[in-house]
Amino acid sequence: MPGHVRELVAGPLPGGEVDGRRLVVWLAGVHDIGKATPAFACQVDALADRMRGVGLAMPYRREMGADRRVAPHGLAGQLLLQEWLEERHGWAWRATGQFAVVIGGHHGAPPDEGQVHALDSRPEMLRTPGASEGLWRQVQEELLDANAEASGAGERLADWRRVKLPQTVQVLLSALVIVADWTASNTDLFPYAGADEGDRSGAGRVAAAWRGLDLPEPWRPVEPVGTAAELFAARFDLPTGARPRPVQEAAVRMAREMPRPGLLIVEAPMGEGKTEAALAAAEVLAARCGAGGVFFALPTMATGNAMFPRLLDWLDHLPAQDGVRLSVLLAHSKSALNKDFAALRARSWRRVVAVDVDGDVDLPSAATTTPRAPAELVAHQWLNGRKKGMLSSFVVGTIDQLLFAGLKSRHLALRHLAVAGKVVVIDEAHAYDTYMNSYLDRVLGWLGAYGVPVVVLSATLPPDRRRELAAAYAGVSAEGEQYAALARADAYPLLTAVAPERPPMQEAPGGSGRGSTVQVEGLADDVGTLADRLAVELADGGCVLVVRNTVGRVLETAEALRDRFGEGTEVTVAHARFLDLDRAANDARLLELFGPPAPGRIRPARHIVVASQVAEQSLDVDFDLLVTDLAPVDLVLQRMGRLHRHPRAGRPERLRVPRCLLTGVDWAVEPPAPVRGSERVYGRYPLLRSLAALLPVLSSTGDSANRVVRLPEDIPTLVRQAYDAAGQVPQGWAEAVGEAREAHQRARADQERRAGTFRIGEVAAAGRSLVGWVAGSVGDADDTPAGRAQVRDGQDSLEVIVIQRLADGSLATVGWIGEGRGGLPLPQDAVPTAEAAKAAAACGLRLPLQLSHPKIIDQVIAEIEHFYVPAWQAKESYWLAGELILPIDADCRTRLAGFVLNYSRAQGLEVLREK
Predict the structure, then answer these.
(1) What distance lies between CA 102 and its chain's CA centroid?
(2) Tell me, what's the pLDDT at 378?
(3) If you ran DSSP here, which 8-state letter would residue 448 be given?
(4) Are 270 and 622 in contact (CB under 8 A)?
(5) For residue 496, is pLDDT > 50?
(6) In angstroms, what is the C-alpha Rg of the chain?
(7) Torsion angles phi and psi, residue 695, rounded to 5
(8) Could you count the other beta carbons within 10 Å of the beta carbon of residue 772?
(9) pLDDT at 386
(10) What is residue 373's DSSP assignment?
(11) CB 3.0–4.6 Å: which of 56, 194, 518, 776 could bond 51 by disulfide?
């Protein structure tokens, strides 16, 4: 258990960590006391009859019928423990709930008030009335007394009755009991033993189970000494002579100097090394507070995949004790298809099963030794799945995994335990809408209450959002003067620190001197005009990035440019409507062609990439010219970050100055009108405010030197102007902007209202029990499309696995995928080979939203489900069971709900209405 979690549990107890251990052992020992009740014991007649034979009378199960549901054994155990504490140990009833609710919630959800009241009014469910009632009470009290004595809790109950347990501690205790229950209930670790098997029923069984479980230890970081330069040289492969940038040095300094580890917001330009700054700060913060790992949260699976090898490389540079293993996880629904993570799992796999041992077994210890060598990284078999995986020490995952900690759902306590012992890093914090931010702010409030260090990264964070994040973590109103002042800071780069119960601090470390001046110009939204302009710009060669806001515009533009330029200029596309394997290959090729200069890397002489928003983040690519649809200003700036990103000799003469052509706008009307597709994606109001912020640059006359955005100097000014509700707009725009603002505010209020339906409450006062904590929950939460839809707003699209139907009617994996995975047979009368099934699963495809429209969604699903292969639903068919399968013909076409779907390796998926 990470030291920080031990300290949290021990904090409110008078006996510190000794009391903490006793409390956990005691609650784990009594967690199933509710099974010693008629409502539970009646389930198996043969066993119930033995109990009846010694005087424990109870109705038969069929006599109880549905009434048993009022007394689930967790809730029954909670009431029995509360009664025992009150009647046998003199506790006030109100004080008992904060401890006993751990028993009530050990199957995933604390009871709500209605459930407690319902069982409280049915005492016969706990003890059969009549002659045996006293015997039932005696049995229950004997079990509770014995556990209190064995755990050492009995002698501490008198002191504990005055304790007020914070809700955070109640959550952690609940999670620890759940983990203990699952471990002890694992029949591979604790096989059923007969009475004649000697020590197998006692300490020997525990020793064998612990050896067989073989969990990696939590990370025990030691605070690095020396300068920031020495730390970066030791942790990252810096070029010879390189030094940390000012923002990186400042992040380490603030992590060291904060009165207590807390929230650190790092705002710095694209490409300034924020990721490395976060990891360095995380190491310092973890050592200071006793955190046992790091969770790095990113916006998408693609950004998570890109971050995972960087985390592995950092971990390889961390010092560790000899022989120590550290658990690592890539947390998203397609992690098994990630090569780095799959290789790690393959190296780490071993069956979790009890191992008999002779002599003593070393159980967990908090002892540390001098760090010497890199740790062994493992993806442990037990730390797998949607409920236990996040307990791994080091996790890279989508932001959904963090937002789930704010969602009323089963086993929510496990998600809280997973983050309570880590440093949490949140990347691209500007990328989330009101709905997601509602969950994020609530989770930050809980993380602040746990004392979890959090590092937030952004290049384009609106000032008001900075204030809201800081106030959410501190658990205070964002309207207070201390936090309102945070939004007035206009320095850039900027670091903001919030230590628990201390005033926030800010520091402006200054830039690294890296920067560029981007000339900006408006361009008519017409593909012919675009083609003409690119013909001029590319006369001497060059590499252009064209960013469109919808896939439809990507494909339309690419087709027009191919027609115009022919074979002399390669035109490629990048968007999210490719098979997973194809999209990964596309990203790899973009990095190979347009990534940082490297030995052997040959940059194309003339190339146009037409991309959707996938080009905004995660890819370290560098282009000579940018054409972009109008988007919210922070995203336009992110796109500008792909211009002249790296020093590079030999750029064509016309393209040696970074330039951005802004399109996707009808410039002939007042105010200029964003194209309809962009409004559907972002909303009219953010686009008009973005345009208003950029207009002074676009409308400058005379020398082109006046039409520039200076990066990074202009970033905070442009972002502030675009997101300040009181900001000025040009004359003649006021009515249109006002109408758009009202619609925007209504939409945000609706998002906030809907998010509140399943969002957990704020942390309540210490001593208030968790009863009702997840009342009205969504059930299980997981990283599936349905699960992600619970913490992301908007219509969720369907995801299918694409396979190919050959001319002879047989099925196979699509033919063009590499590494021998293409064209593998998929028999319909048997479970496909693991190789073929995994290759098929790697060809997932997200269908466009037009196929998820409420009017046709049922028809779409029905037609897809019409293709059903019973043999693929077997338990052995891990990769394909339960998935939606979409066969395409040999020409890569199919029909679906009145649409024709065409897929090509070059274009991805195109959807046309059937004529």
Answers:
(1) 26
(2) 82
(3) H
(4) no
(5) yes
(6) 30
(7) -60, -40
(8) 17
(9) 78
(10) B
(11) 56
